[in-house]
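Priority: medium. Attachment 1 of 2:
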């Protein structure tokens, strides 16, 4: 983006009808990264006009989850507070002849579509409502019938409202390149329901125009919507934003994630003990040319952002990738970063303990297991009494530390003639009861000399 271009204004506009999941968080973070990379503005806008499904608790959860991920926003808007603006825009479009009332039921429209398909015709709305006279409209309203309102697409050649003709609507997409959608192949979209509530396409465009949104970054499932929205911006006399449509996410097997989204909510990741930096890093980097590596903060991710790095191919998501990122993040985490979390899990081993075990945890909660190993009695596993017996006999006086641990191992090796696995595995099993885990040299001193000696002798300690 050239330096002389004004900073962008973007929006993330979720519907508060559920918790946000990895798919829509990817959209959120791409918007945030783009704006922050160029000193722009981020608006969180709740599409909460669905009176039956929108819930304030979901809106609160979304704010909490975004904050947890490190995504801040400059303004918070609710579409339910902006109905006067929508009413004004609707009135203007009615006066311009671009919104017209329709009285067909859903069954009527479905029946028409089936007949059109049977005749080999495209199943788009036939604009029958445009032929209604003022008297016919008044008669239907007198019967108590309430219309829904359609936006009249400009796709009929020289005469607005005639038979749809091939009408290319084109734009240069910041991710997908030059795009064209034939508005002549589309039905005039419903903008206002019979109950007077507004649909997403209408409220979104009215708000985008009013808020000065300069760039819309969203999933490729909205590509066709863009043709309609470009015409709607024009009908409202507003400059259209630039568009960037990213690919959708699929599972590791290539299948759609739609049936699993409940398990992939950010709230679920939090409950599973994943770190926000790991989740944010994957959401930001998946489907790009950058390597998927953990980043300690979202600011460093913003420095990497470029639309040119985003692939048009589906982004393959595997929750195991987040777990792996989480482990890698913790392997390099300083004690100060995790101290409070360790305390919350009942771990009181201090920095030495964290440094000893951080390479062997996928989640902070795993640290509790190793804390129990070093601080609570366990039943040792004695695999080779010759090795453990020699280890007990040759244990140096005083507490163990990095300096005398290595010398102690050398003495056991010389005494028993054992080396490699034959030497270290019996000692590991005796001290931890596990076949694998943290290096014993830093972990052993935390276990303590007396407990080590007892375990080497086979005593529960």
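Attachment 2 of 2:
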């Amino acid at each position: 983006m050239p330096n002389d271009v004004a900073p962008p204004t973007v929006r993330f506009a979720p519907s508060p009808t559920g918790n946000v999941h990895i798919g829509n968080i990817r959209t959120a973070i791409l918007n945030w990264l783009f704006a922050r990379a160029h000193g722009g503005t981020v608006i969180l806008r709740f599409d909460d006009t669905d009176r039956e499904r929108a819930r304030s608790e979901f809106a609160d959860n979304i704010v909490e989850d975004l904050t947890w991920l490190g995504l801040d926003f400059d303004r918070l808007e609710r579409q339910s507070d902006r109905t006067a603006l929508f009413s004004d825009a609707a009135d203007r479009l009615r006066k311009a002849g671009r919104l017209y009332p329709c009285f067909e039921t859903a069954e009527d429209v479905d029946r028409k579509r089936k007949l059109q398909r049977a005749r080999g015709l495209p199943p788009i709305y036939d604009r029958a409502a445009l032929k209604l006279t003022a008297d016919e409209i008044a008669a239907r309203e007198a019967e108590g019938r309430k219309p829904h309102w359609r936006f009249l697409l400009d796709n009929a050649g020289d005469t607005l409202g005639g038979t749809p003709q091939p009408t290319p609507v084109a734009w240069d997409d910041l991710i997908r390149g030059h795009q064209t959608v034939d508005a002549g192949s589309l039905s005039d979209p419903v903008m206002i329901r019979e109950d007077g509530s507004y649909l997403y396409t209408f409220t979104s465009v009215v708000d985008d125009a009013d808020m000065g949104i300069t760039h819309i970054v969203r999933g490729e499932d909205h590509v066709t919507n863009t043709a309609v929205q470009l015409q709607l911006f024009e009908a409202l006399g507003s400059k259209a934003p630039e568009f960037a449509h990213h690919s959708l996410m699929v599972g590791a097997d290539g299948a759609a994630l739609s049936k699993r989204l409940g398990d992939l909510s950010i709230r679920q990741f939090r409950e599973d003990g994943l770190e926000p930096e790991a989740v944010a890093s994957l959401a930001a980097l998946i489907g790009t040319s950058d390597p998927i590596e953990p980043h300690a903060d979202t600011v460093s991710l913003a420095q990497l952002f470029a639309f040119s790095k985003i692939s048009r191919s589906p982004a393959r998501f595997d929750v195991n990738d987040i777990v792996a990122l989480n482990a890698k993040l913790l392997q390099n985490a300083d004690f100060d970063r995790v101290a409070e979390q360790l305390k919350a899990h009942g771990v009181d081993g201090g920095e030495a303990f964290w440094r000893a075990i951080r390479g062997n945890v996928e989640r902070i909660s795993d640290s509790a297991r190793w804390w129990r190993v070093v601080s609570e009695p366990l039943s040792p596993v004695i695999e080779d009494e010759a090795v453990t017996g020699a280890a007990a006999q040759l244990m140096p006086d005083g507490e163990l530390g990095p300096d005398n641990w290595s010398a102690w191992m050398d003495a056991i090796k010389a005494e028993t003639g054992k080396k490699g696995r034959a030497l270290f595995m019996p000692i590991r099993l005796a001290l931890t009861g596990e076949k694998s885990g943290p290096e014993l040299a830093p972990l052993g001193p935390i276990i303590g000399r007396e407990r080590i000696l007892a375990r080497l002798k086979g005593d529960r300690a």
